[in-house]
Amino acid sequence: MGPLEPKANDLIVAVICFAAVFFTFAKFLVPRITRTLEARQDAIEGTLARSEAVHAEARRIHAEYQAELSEARHEAARIRQAATDDGSLLIQEIRAEGQRQRDELVASARAQLEADRILAEAVLREDVLRLATDLAERILGEPITDERRARETAEAFFAEVDADSSAKA
Q: The whole model's pTM is what?
């Protein structure tokens, strides 16, 4: 009898041992192995799902960050533009105020110059009249007593000079 023709006793013992090992594997080991494989599969799928969820959350947060960054840039540009506009407006107001003050100073100076000119002209006319009278007294060798006539003569002279200067202007 050889290995291809076993004895019936050996065959029955081998079948019982095989059945016992098979039953032990089927009853205890295969369910544990199955549970372990399923747990691993669930862990892998759960980790994958969690990683996809985390990745999606990261993409959402990144998009929000980009949107906030873009909004902040727009806000900064708007603030810069508003500051530039305010600065330009302030410069225009300061220039207008400076122009107004300059015009007031120029007008005041012109009025003061005109008043000073009129005053100086009156003083000079009196001085010229006095000098002319003194000169006439020296030339004639006697005092001029008719002050009214001397004043009229000087006024006529000044009127003639004023008319000549008006005609030349």
A: 0.44
Which tokens hold the place of 143? 């005092």
Q: What secondary structure letter does DSSP report for 142?
A: S
Query: In a structure prediction context, what are the per-residue pLDDT tens digits for the chain, which is 169 residues long?
Result: 566 777 888 889 989 999 999 999 889 988 999 999 999 998 888 888 888 889 999 999 999 999 999 999 999 999 999 999 999 999 999 999 999 999 999 999 999 999 999 999 889 888 888 888 888 778 877 777 777 777 787 788 888 888 888 888 7
| Chain mean position to CA 124 | 62
Total residues found in the chain within this entry: 169
Q: How far apart (Å, rounded) are the C-alpha atoms in residues 169 and 140?
A: 37
Token pair, residue 76, equals 């900064």
Instruction: For residue 132, count CB atoms less than 10 angstroms from its CB and return exposed for 0-12, middle for 13-18, buried for 19 or more.
Output: middle
